[in-house]
């Protein structure tokens, strides 16, 4: 029933920032899980590269510790852990200087894929790209993986694209958006384009509206300094929510091929209407009575901050398929629960043969990204029992755990899939340079509008569902947000 793991050819993977938080929590555990799944052939090598003076032995100890925390179950297998650690090497280097680079170059193997993961702050992307070239590390089989944030606005994204393009071909650049690596996000494409059932209904004639919610229960954690300069619009909407919107709204690509898919996503971004100021709600969390969590301003130590930690928008798409069907986006921090879900809300049946008492029922396709990834379709059925017809809505579970068996319930982490795609050279789930620029071109005027008007975000309490204005945004259209459920 399950696709077998096909091992990738031996590679050299360099993790710049190999001692950082992302490497420790996500990249290394993902690599280890793929290693345990038999995805790597003999000879695969992973080289950590960071500032710290660790040495290979020190790095292996660091990684073992990280895996015991982030992949505890798999790390319990001592033989597998030792075998994985044996693939690791380490170089101490300076991304802004020349220290360590000749040593790194000397460690690399000829004639194989070289994947360079830029798991460092964005100010180091350009210095790394330049030094990779200068030290002769770039071959035709070298690929770079760039983490978010990709730029701060259109100008900076363009400049970064230009710098990377000076050293790499576009097919060598993998701009990561880990939302695209989620199993359910790809399942969304399979459901849309693999079935006859949905696509004929997937348009403004049958879909009333779409809601995309990415709710976080946590605050800014250790990222306060970065976040206070970014805000929810730059940190979440321009990239993650935009990507989800594209996958929902795009036309069927002619094939599941990187450029065919990305061409269609780009067309969606270019068809987005400019957002009217009254179709946007910005919020910022404040402490709630009886709860320990601080408000945003206290958390980042900036008592005058006007950075939004929440944003809700009503977005229109000017094309034949979607004109008249709004897409509502919302994302925020310190909300009532962690929950990322896309709800495609279909129109009501044109006429109820069951009478007014039966109420109005709408089919809702819910694509849940986290937690508990899965897809359900809300359908209306007769409530079982005697005595006339009463209608109820029940979710049709499309995760098919029973049919797929226990492995079906296990979804690999997004980074597992994305790292393997980089090693295979498959860019379908990575953002192309023009896509990122188009997303900034749409986002920039919204942020500039706030700045020029001196907009102050609406307060919302920690643990709530966001500012009340966001409810009004929906209520004005006779709609309501579906609940944020853990
Ligand atoms: P971090 O601060 O924890 O780690 C930074 C790493 O970069 C360290 O290994 C450090 O040694 C290395 N480094 C810093 N300056 C260097 C220099 N001059 N030369 C060589 N190495 C240097 O950062 P992080 O949280 O791991 O984030 C890395 C990147 O991933 C950032 O772009 C961040 O925005 C992005 N990101 C992180 C997360 C996350 O959950 N941590 C999530 C999404 C995106």
TrEMBL record:
Residue span(s) of domain Glucose-6-phosphate dehydrogenase C-terminal: 189-481
Location of the active site: 240 (proton acceptor)
Pathway as given in its UniProt record: Carbohydrate degradation; pentose phosphate pathway; D-ribulose 5-phosphate from D-glucose 6-phosphate (oxidative stage): step 1/3
GO biological process, one term: glucose metabolic process
The enzyme's E.C. designation: 1.1.1.49
Key words of the record: Carbohydrate metabolism, Glucose metabolism, NADP, Oxidoreductase
Domain of life: Bacteria
GO CC, any one term: cytosol
Reactions catalysed, as given in the entry: D-glucose 6-phosphate + NADP(+) = 6-phospho-D-glucono-1,5-lactone + NADPH + H(+)
Binding-site residues for NADP(+), renumbered to this chain: 17-24, 51, 148
One term of GO molecular function: NADP binding
All copies of domain Glucose-6-phosphate dehydrogenase NAD-binding, residue ranges: 14-187
InterPro entries cross-referenced by the UniProt entry: G6P_DH, G6P_DH_AS, G6P_DH_C, G6P_DH_NAD-bd, NAD(P)-bd_dom_sf
Sites where the protein binds substrate: 178, 182, 216, 235, 333
EC top class, as a word: oxidoreductase
Entries under Pfam families matching the protein: G6PD_C, G6PD_N
UniProt xrefs under SUPFAM superfamilies: Glyceraldehyde-3-phosphate dehydrogenase-like, C-terminal domain, NAD(P)-binding Rossmann-fold domains
Function: Catalyzes the oxidation of glucose 6-phosphate to 6-phosphogluconolactone.
Family (UniProt): Belongs to the glucose-6-phosphate dehydrogenase family.
Protein name: Glucose-6-phosphate 1-dehydrogenase
Gene name, Swiss-Prot/TrEMBL: zwf
